[in-house]
Amino acid sequence: MRDYDKEEPLQQQIREEIDFDKLNDFCEHLTDAIQEIFHSCGLYFRIFSRVKSVESIAGKIIRRQYGTEKNPKKLQDLVGIRVVLYYYDDLSICRDIMESTFQMIDHWSRTNNNANEFKATKINGVFRFPAEYFSLYKKELWDLPIDTTFEIQFRTVFFEGWHEIEHDMRYKSLLSDDEFWKGSEELSRILNCVLANLELSDWSLVQLFDQLSYNHYKNANWELMLKSKFRIRMDDNSVLHPDIIALFDRDKDVSKQFFKCSRKDLIRELLKLDTPHLNYNLIVKLLNDRSVHNEEITAICASLPALKEERSYQKTIYRRLDSSVLFHLELPLLHKETRTLESEFANGAYVLYKWARFKFNSVFNDIPTDLCSYHNKLPGYQIRFDYQPEKMTFTMKIHYIDSQSVGTLWHVHSSIALLDDGRLHFYHMTSRDMPHGIAQRATFVKPSFLSDLSSKVGLTDGARLSTKAHFVTEAEELQQFYHLIEDPARRLPLIAILQQFVNHNAENDSNYPDGYDMNTFTINGMRLAKVIGLYSHVYMLDQDWTADFATHYGFDSENMEGAICIFWPPYQKRNPEMYTHEMICDTEFDFNRLAFHDQNISEKAFRHKLVQMMKDENAMH
Fold first, then answer.
1. With 90 as the cut, is the pLDDT of residue 451 above it?
2. What is the pLDDT at residue 169?
3. What DSSP character marks residue 87?
4. DSSP E strands: which ranges in 542-587?
């Protein structure tokens, strides 16, 4: 059987036997544990982790023939953790830490170079899953030839990029290394020079800081000596106690003993502490207790409040969560004379109910299929539907934790109700509470049911909202356009895009899919409306009405061709904003993902700016 004929049934077996969601939870907890250990002793590092994909597992089992007579061994890197270290001498330190922390299988696999060759420096080790964390898996173990082990790789920061290149260009290459470089042996030699320079950089960096620490020692710069000698992350506000400085200045033999202390010994002492507050005084205390044993230093350290206890703890401070609104909309629903209010209410309420049931059925699997009142709560989740068809009111309130962002709570409140004006009104707010100081990734969350509600019932704000731009081509449409701009009841911003020129080569604008040649407008309003059309108005004004529009609102007619105007809701009492064609064309992305795209970048950049403005406006009001 060919390999790809074997892979499909094996992949299916892997999907059936392994719960990847639970395995990813285990991987995340294991990674956090290792990260906490390295943080506690002040190492400079970055950490990455992954659970092997179904395709990668199947391919490796078949390629290595795991679980067969030829190779009875099992795959050992189902979970992989990679730690990138900033300093070469941390490789041996971290290796020892892992050996002392987890149960190791076999021996470390490391690069062994002879005097005539260069290879990327790395250390790999395989360890058993710790039961404390693997208990999260909570599923019957698989029958596949896969061990309950994880692999940890240590690399230096200089070799990190090289390893990625090597993995794709050599390790996963179908060609042998000799065949890969055949006919280009001189390039292979150059590659060895690159590797040699990387290895030299690793070695040189450590030597550089060792020499720097010696220079500071000779010049009696004691804090800088400790910093460059031991190279650990410390509190930026850390200072060495004046009495210690005075002793070092007075007795160079004492300072010399500290200079000669081992970095590895310091890190071992730090690992004995729980959440130590890393600072110069703690370094001196730990080295003195372990190696130097100077009585005067002992007395000084004993007088320092933060160092009286060997174990240092930081007090937990509780603060209020920061609240932010991510989407808010409050509008009447469209009423058609051909429909009853009762049917419109039922359709709208069901759109909201169906969305919530689909989103949370995996948490609350007893939510009825049919629209009804319902209330339930579980740890981290609370949901309530209040359905009163006789009063034509439906309210939905949902509160839940964020499974990805620690300490973050989400709140969704939606309703459809018949109010005193005899119309059905829609209300929605999505908000979030999160710990102070955490970077907020998402600042705008439009509910996915909004398009469904718009198409099945309709949303109005003086005019029906749509994901298509409205074209103003006739005198009657122009008057309706003016009326909407000036309507005191309008709640949403209105964007007017003025035509730049008329395409005289076009026989009929109806030939265009959007009903107009979009190239005659500075901004593609159809694409803009597709994004913001349900929480903003988007209108496109024919060039024939540009002069009338400019006169009506007191704009300079000379700058109106291709311009864009934003009319804010009248209740805000804000002046309209006008952007000329020149201003639009000068717009650039702050971060240009389309730098090498050959289309109109300024159009995309300004359209992106308008979208962000409307999102910010929605969240603020």
1. yes
2. 65
3. S
4. 564-567, 577-579
Region 348-355 average pLDDT? 97
**Cα gap 450→465, rounded to integer Å:** 11
| Helical residues (DSSP H) of 319-432, grouped into ranges | 341-360
Helices (H) and strands (E) in the chain, counts: 21, 16
- Percent residues over pLDDT 90 in the chain: 68
pLDDT at 311: 46
- Percent composition of the chain: helix, strand, coil (DSSP 3-state, to 5): 45, 20, 35
The whole-angstrom separation of Cα 398 and Cα 353 is 11
Q: Measuring CA to CA, which residue among 278, 277, 222 is closest to residue 249? A: 222
**pLDDT of 133 strictly over 80:** yes
Q: Is 551 helix (H, G, I), strand (E, B) or coil?
A: helix
Integer CA distances (angstroms), 5 to 10, 54, 65, in order:
9, 15, 15
Check: CB of residue 131 under 8 Å from CB of residue 141.
no
Flag whether pLDDT at 217 surpasses 70.
Answer: yes
Cβ atoms 387, 372 nearer than 8 A: yes
- Mean of pLDDT values over 597-611: 84
Q: Which residues pair with 124 in a beta bridge?
A: 109, 153
Average pLDDT over residues 391-420: 94
Using alpha carbons, select from 98, 115, 116 the residue that is nearest to residue 107.
Answer: 98
pLDDT band at 341 (very low <50, low <70, confident <90, very high): very high
Summarize pLDDT for 282-291 with one digit per residue, the tens: 999 999 999 9
Note the Cα 208 to chain centre separation in Å.
36
pTM, entire model: 0.64
CA 396 to each of CA 351, 427, 561: distance values in angstroms, whole numbers, following the listed order: 12, 10, 46
**3-state secondary structure at position 398:** strand
Spatial separation of the C-alpha atoms in residues 523 and 498, rounded to whole Å: 9
Q: How far apart are CA 454 and CA 334, in angstroms?
A: 9
Residue 597: what pLDDT? 63
Indicate the burial class of 295 (C-beta count within 10 angstroms; 0-12, 13-18, 19 or more).
exposed
Residue 235 neighbours by CB distance under 10 Å = 11
- Among residues 414, 385, 392, the alpha carbon closest in space to that of 343 is found at 392
Determine contact, residues 42/234, Cβ cutoff 8 Å: yes
Look at the block and give the residue holding tokens 């509780």. 318
Range with the lowest mean pLDDT among 1-15, 233-247, 406-420?
1-15
103: three-class secondary structure by DSSP: coil
Residue whose C-alpha is closest to residue 563's, from 571, 573, 574, 549: 549
Other C-beta atoms closer than 10 Å to the C-beta of 348 total: 26
| Tens of pLDDT, residues 267-280 | 999 998 877 889 99
Query: What are the phi and psi torsion angles at 59 (to 5°)?
Result: -60, -40
Specify the amino acid at residue 348. Answer: G
Beta bridge partners of 411: 399, 431
Partners of residue 26 on adjacent β-strands: none
Q: What's residue 1's pLDDT? A: 44
